[in-house]
Design brief:
about 55 residues; mainly alpha; 3 helices
Length: about 55
């Protein structure tokens, strides 16, 4: 997936319905490619992340 495709996909993720693990992976890929600046998320922290949803 090209950067612009990933960025478009990420911006259109429906946080209310997406699997939290999928969101973590997509977020980490955005960070890895330098498309967003943030701390990498850990898959082991999914329980904490799902409280946000």
């Amino acid at each position: 997936m090209k950067n612009y495709q990933l960025n478009n996909y990420f911006e259109n993720i429906d946080i209310a319905t997406v699997n939290p693990a999928h969101y973590v992976i997509a977020t980490n890929e955005m960070i890895h490619r330098g498309l967003i600046v943030a701390e990498r998320l850990k898959l082991t922290d999914i329980n904490e992340a799902s409280e946000v949803f």
